[in-house]
Amino acid sequence: MATMRAGVVAPAFVEGGVVKGVSVRRVRIGRSCVWGSTRGFGSSVKLVQGKDGRAKGARADMSGPEGLPIMPPSHRIKAASVSAFQEFQNARANRYTKVKSSIMVLGLSIHTTPVEMREKLAVPEAEWPRAIDELSSQNHIEEAGVLSTCNRFEIYVVAVSWNRGVKEVTEWMSKTSGISVEDLMEHLFILRDQDATQHLFRVASGLDSLVLGEGQILAQVKQVLKVGQEVSGFGRNLTGLYKQAITAGKRVRTETNISAGAVSVSSAAVELAVMKLPPGGVSRVNVAIVGAGKMSKLLVKHLISKGCTRMIIVNRSEQRVLDLQEEFPDAKIVYEPLSEMLRCTGEADLVFTSTSSEVPLFMKENVETLSPASQASGGVRHFIDISVPRNVAACLSDLANTRVYNVDDLKEVVAANKEDRRRKAADAQVIIDDEIQNFEAWRDSLETVPTIKKLRSYAERVRQAELEKCLSKMPEDLTAKQKRSIEDLSRGIVNKLLHGPMQHLRSDGTDSKTVGETIENMHALERMFDLGSEVLVVETKAKAKK
User: Fold this and answer.
1) Which of 107-111, 353-357, 420-424 is predicted with the least confidence, judged by mean pLDDT?
2) CA angle 109-110-111, nearest 5°?
3) Which residues are catalytic?
4) How does pLDDT run across 493-519, given as a tens digit for each residue?
5) Of 287, 286, 289, whose CA–CA distance to 354 is shortest?
6) Phi, psi torsion values for 202, nearest 5 degrees
7) 468: part of which helix (H) or strand (E)?
8) Nearest to 538, CA basis, from 431, 467, 426, 456
9) CA 286, 288, 294, 297: dihedral to nearest 10 degrees?
10) Torsion angle defined by CA atoms of residues 479, 481, 482 and 485, in that order, rounded to the nearest 10 degrees
């Protein structure tokens, strides 16, 4: 069956192909094809594309029970029955299966999705913990993380069943955004295991950014890790994944010249303004910036480099503007409170917006009464909105002598030098592949954790049984101190005997050869001590509570 497995590229769909009345949709991200249909998850059909580009016919009907795609055989063990899964949930602290849980990413980015949809899904940083808790509480999801920026919205999860995990995440996305699952599937990309790992590493390295090599995305990935480490639902696997992604991002920027000449979203916005304004650019027009965060700071920096020496910054508080005045003493930066926003806009020819507001700040009825822009901008007022959700309503474009641009319009700026971008990306990919191997080796080393616990559980059960036998043959007048000494002796013997095997079951994952040997040792110990039938104490207690 042509299922989508880890590290294997799914056969390409024929866009718009129809089989049994199902319209197939395809989104290609990197080496992976994302599949879906106009019916959501039910009746998804794969069509294989021949060398001539024509459909060769359906290879597999992926629809299964409950409208879900059929699970790969290697994953069927994970959902054998509802009762088995409930037992599994009760022993959550010691979850393990014969097949590792899948790491998946489901997301939408500027490459595949218009800003109108991305802004509905955007989750502010303050809400990330809530989103993680809600996602990780789903039945088939162990861990969850949210990466939400102006250019992308991505959810990373560790799922015990990848197809049911996909269903739960997409339903959560639909519920929180108000977008139907069918509409989401038109734009959603889904990657799992090594493909998901590679995607995050490319994101952290700036290879998946609209602006190749831009540095802000690495800081955003770091922030996801920082927030996630304070939330229980952001577990060990995602912590390791994000740490390795940050390492990859740092190495790419240090060992290649990918950041040389790279621009940020803010600098691309300034370049767009220069392209749209009459000769003389930003140095001749009246400029206003709404917001004083990191993006606005970069706007100020790049506006000054283009010859703009005076600008008004409208912000809720004054302190950040004072900091900018101190950092850029050669420019005249004027602070205005948010209550003066419309007045300042009426005096400006070029308005940049970069705030965290979840509702538009500029509506048609507010702007249409403003005085016209000056002749320095040709009488046209330009709004460049780099916020997601957007700060400027799209309907402003209907007004005469008003132009509105958002982050999707920045593609025009970065379309040049495609060949140079490809060459730099190829150099970075070598580093990313190396870091993927390191992460996979580390994750493989985690497989020994259940064996370590089972071996200790087995040894403890034997120790307690033999201790009880011993004490039953001892005089009844043994003091508590004597009994404690005998118990300490039994513990000491067990710990000494376990020391060697435990050392051979531990690996930090940095050496693939060492990891391989550790896995071999794990299997050998499981056979020797028949650990396959050993039940952890915590599982026994969980079952006893039913």
Assistant:
1) 420-424
2) 85
3) 150
4) 988 888 877 777 665 555 555 666 766
5) 289
6) -70, -40
7) helix 448-472
8) 456
9) 30
10) 160
